[in-house]
Every structure is written in C-alpha cells, then in structure tokens.
Design goal:
The chain has 139 residues and is mostly beta strands. The chain is 12% helix and 30% strand. The strands form 2 sheets. A 6-stranded antiparallel beta sheet has the order 3-4-8-7-6-5.
C-alpha cells in the first residue's frame, strides 16, 4: 500500500499516528478500558498484533493513558526500533507488515512479562473471539 492509499483508508488521526509517528491524546482511545475477548490487529493493514488476554492495566505514571499489552501475538508481528526523537531513548513499536507506528515498549514491573507495549488505540482494530456453538452437528 502506498501513502495515498493509506490516506484514503485511514482517518486523519489514524494517518497522523500510524504513518507520521504521532500520539493520540492520553485517556481518549476507544480500547483503553476495552475488555472483550479477541485479537487486536493493525488498523492500517489488518496484521494480527495482540491477543486480548495479554492486555492489562499498567500502574506506571505517564503510561496509563493508552492500552497496555504484556506481549505481542508473535515475535515477528512487530519490529522494535530505537527512538531518540524526544531526546530520551525509547523503543518504538512498528507493525512489521506495513511499517506503521503503533506506540512504544517500556519496562513495567506491573506487567506479567515485565514488558509494557504502550499502544495507541487509533492504531488498532479489534476482531472478537468467535463464540462456540453448542449445536455442533459434526460430531
């Protein structure tokens, strides 16, 4: 997908965050307090990124305003890059499939893995976990 296609597909806020490495306003994202079972995917390309069971509530001041994940769905789902743009060393999280900015990775003792994937809600779409049917006649 080229930049014109991204501009057509994404909202202006999504484009700014995903393609220009912006940040959404803290505590404004639709997935901050979202607790449904399923998979979070890249809003730009649909690549699977995080399972809902790795989402947790961080207690780190300054990082609690965005969805927090303890781990990615698969090590190859994201690329980690050094980010010194603000004069502070951070680790940027980028969708490996389309190269879009997702957020940053931090250390976090309140995370089950010690890792805090701090991800912008506008970078994500959600695919609910399919519900099982009790009337399965294939048995």
């Amino acid at each position: 997908m080229n930049e014109d296609e991204f501009k057509q597909k994404l909202t202006p806020e999504q484009y700014h965050v995903l393609r220009e490495s912006g940040t959404e306003v803290p505590f404004s994202g639709k997935f901050l307090d979202y607790d449904k079972a399923g998979t979070y995917v890249c809003a730009a390309c649909g690549a699977e990124l995080f399972k809902s069971d790795t989402k947790y509530e961080s207690n780190v001041p300054g990082l609690a305003g965005w969805p927090s994940f303890a781990d990615v769905i698969d090590a190859g789902a994201v690329e980690l890059r050094n980010d010194d743009k603000l004069g502070v060393r951070r680790v940027e999280v980028v969708c490996r499939s389309c190269g879009s900015h997702l957020g940053h990775l931090f250390d976090d003792d309140s995370s089950p893995t010690g890792q805090h994937y701090c991800i912008n809600s506008v970078c994500l779409d959600f695919m609910p976990k399919p519900t099982s049917t009790t009337n399965d006649k294939s048995a």
